[in-house]
Amino acid sequence: MARRRDAQGERFVYGSVLDALGQGLYPDKRHVIREFVQNACDAVREYERQTKRSLGAPIEIRMAKPSITIFDRGIGMHRKLMRQYRYVGFSEKDTAFDVGFRGIGTISGIAVARSIIVTSSRLGVPKRYRVVIDADGMLDKVRSDRNPPLEELLHDHTEVETEDADPDEHFAFVELHKIREDSQELYERGVLSDYLRRVLPVPFDPGFGHGEVIARRLRLNVPDFFDVSVTLDDEALYKPYLTNLLAPEFETIFFGEEPDSPALAYCWYCMHASKGQFPDKKTRGLAYRVKNFAIGTPQLTRETLWDATPERAFYFFGEIHHLDRELVPSSDRGQFEDNTARKRMYAQCKRVARVLNRKAGIESEQRRFDEVIKETKTVLASRERELATGDLPAEIQDDVQYEIRSALENVEKRLKRARSKRKKTERDSALIKEGGRLTKQARAVLRKLSRADAKGDLYDIAKAVRLSQQARAVYDVVIEVLREELGAELRKLERILRALHARLGQKLR
Amino acid sequence: MAIRFTRNKQVIRDLQCELIEKHLGQSLGYLRYFGLSSPGMRDVQDWAPLFSSFQVAERGAETLEWRDQHELIVNAALSGLSRKIRLLRGDIDDIISSGCDSYGAAVEYPVDVVSLDYSGGLLYREGDRIPRLEAIGKLIEQQPFLGHAWLLFISMRFDHPLDGEIKRTLENIRTELKRYGRSADKVIDAAIDHPRDEVRFKIYVPYFVNQVAARARMRCQTDKPVFYEGNKRARMMSFQFYLSHDARTVAPRFPQERLVQIINAPLREVKGGKLSEVTLGMPKLVSAESQ
């Protein structure tokens, strides 16, 4: 059967897709800024790659109403790239090397600004180019002209201009001009700064004591790792960090279990030095990173990697840098595209969760052992003092013996566990030493206690206030009832007893 | 790309720089600038080491305002001056008069150097109003901060036909002098009839600024006015004023410079990059004793 040719000049894409692309892909307007900064990062990297020189100058983001500008001194764009800047969905970027590669980042600008003006000059090219995208014009036309074809819109509402320039010049300057009313939140500097610090490949904060060590390890182990200076209204942006944490540790995750399996991801993490989760809910946890751009939030790693005890994800703070080039971030960088690479990554990176859970478990155990040692020390010191001064009430001799025996059992149990570890840390050794010393001390106190009655080292209120036999009998009944009522609450019983002794002492001496 | 000044303009710039160093030398590096900028921002770039901030007004071409404004901030970024430069979008006269630009960004006072380097004339009218003069008056009113001293540079082009404003003002000056027993007929007539506008503006502009300054309780010293040929052979004139706040009274003061000083002040010309004093055949106002 003969096929019919399609009518010439038929159009397949129409203007309303602009609105959908702009609004739908970027409901969070801050993502739009990120898109442009991604381009700037790619340009900076390309410059450093080509010239083998470090750029030095930061990417500058400025907020000056009615515009927001992003300026970089990267490699710059030549005419072809500037023309392509106006295309939708076109990109010749290398997914292996570049961050932005879908060719929709520029169009994202129309979601927040009435026009986009880009001026650029490429290193080695004696020209400066300017692209102007009249976003308002396009969207008005879509509404008024019954959704004209996209090509027409882009053709009629974008232009490229050229002028002479110094061939040594290299930069790109993006102006999002006339930020829309519904995007004014972008001018909230604190909010934008906080977001950008978390997602951009900015350096570690100089105040983060472990930053240098971590950065060095990342450079060694993550082939395309880089960080770039970014300023927002002249304030340098650094990655947020937490305090009160232990020294960083590092994990490489491999594609498979074979010995020559290549690395799939590289992880660094710091554990909370105090018990439990870090209190800072925004910064705690591990963040996925691709080319040092954050993908999603730490909540994503928690949901995708932790099958058991997910609360332990927030005992840690760190990053997982992905090396698999088949792993593709989603357009909004909130997730990864669902493909084989993602499945593989989740499966292999769950090892991180297991390792961290184990560490959290060990740390928890060590911390608990430490607490038990402290509690036992306090109890032993207190009881030894009472025995020495004769202040321990006779009524609770058995209870105190039970208290010390329980503490001793607890210490011995943890001691046994610590001694049985194959790899002992310094902390383990210190706890074992201290635990060992405490068990000896506890046994000594128990021995003293068992002889205390015979030696008269216990406090006998009946003797102290010379209770008659009958009074003694009444007193014993009272103590019996108290014991029944209070059960195992030794502290309460002891408090009541001491109060009774004090009153009886006052009244009857 | 930065555009070089003409030789004559460079002389003006050097004069202005000398005044900055003379009057504001103790604050070099921390000065605050407000005004217009030359194409390519060459003026701002040259003075960048003296200033900590520049508020630069850029109107842009009608319906294409964004183009020149964009160009300005690109050049600011390329010259590493973005941190110091604040763009005020719109006509500078409107900005001064309203106190903010087309997008509501307010002018931040006080400033130390104001440069009104107009590419056009000073006296263009909008109905009954002369917006440029009104703006200068409003500007001076915004600056009376206690103890504050600052420089005002005005450059203008002779491109508007002389209207009655200058003539009426000269007549007012004649009347004022007469009131004080001085006959200025010879000088005023010579000024009114003189073929060169420079002669009339030499009196008018300093008189105007002195009067407005006095109302705002400022002392005003006028540097000798200069005329020159600018870009594309445009006839230009440049004025430099040093104003300082006088806190001694609440009531406005009399202008610091007397009319005699203003009338008799020398006129200078820059020609071929060389500065010289000229009279253009104007008589001086003689002292009362010799009349």
In short:
In chain A, 46% of the residues lie in helices and 16% in strands. Chain A has 509 residues and is of the alpha+beta class. The mean pLDDT of chain B is 89.
List the helices and strands and how they pair.
The complex is a heterodimer of chains A (509) and B (291).
Chain A: H1 16-25, H2 30-51, E1 59-64, E2 67-72, H3 79-84, H4 105-108, E3 113-121, E4 127-134, H5 135-144, H6 150-157, E5 158-164, E6 171-179, H7 189-199, H8 211-221, E7 230-232, E8 235-236, E9 249-254, E10 263-271, E11 285-290, E12 293-295, H9 298-305, E13 316-322, H10 340-389, H11 397-419, H12 426-455, H13 461-464, H14 469-486, H15 490-508
Parallel strand pairs in A: 1-7, 11-13
Antiparallel strand pairs in A: 1-2, 2-6, 3-4, 3-6, 4-5, 7-8, 9-10, 10-13, 11-12
Helix pairs in contact in A: 5-6, 10-11, 10-12, 11-12, 14-15
Chain B: H1 7-24, E1 31-35, H2 42-47, E2 51-58, H3 65-78, E3 85-89, H4 92-98, E4 113-117, H5 131-142, E5 149-157, H6 164-179, H7 185-193, H8 197-215, E6 218-222, E7 226-229, E8 235-245, H9 259-264, E9 267-271, E10 274-278
Parallel strand pairs in B: 1-2, 1-4, 2-3, 4-5, 7-9
Antiparallel strand pairs in B: 5-8, 6-8, 7-8, 9-10
Helix pairs in contact in B: 4-5, 5-8, 6-7, 6-8
Most strands sheet of chain A: 8 strands, mixed
Shape of chain B: globular
Helix count, DSSP H or I runs of 4 or more residues of chain B: 9
Work out the strand percent of chain B: 15-25%
Q: Indicate the percent of residues in helices of chain B.
A: 25-40%
Radius of gyration of chain B: 19 Å
What proportion strand of chain A?
A: 15-25%
Q: Helical element count of chain A? A: 15
How would the global form of chain A be characterised?
elongated
Q: Encode the helix/strand succession of chain A as letters.
A: HHEEHHEEHHEEHHEEEEEEHEHHHHHH
Mean pLDDT of chain A, as a whole number?
A: 89
Regions with little confidence, pLDDT below 50 for 5+ residues of chain B: none
Distance between the termini of chain B: 58 Å
Q: What are the low-pLDDT stretches of chain A, counting only 5+ consecutive residues below 50?
A: 1-6
- Reading the helices and strands of chain B in chain order gives HEHEHEHEHEHHHEEEHEE
Taking the sheet with the most strands of chain B, its summary is: 10 strands, mixed
Class from helix and strand fractions of chain B: alpha/beta
Largest interface: A-B, 21 and 16 residues
How many strand elements of chain A?
13
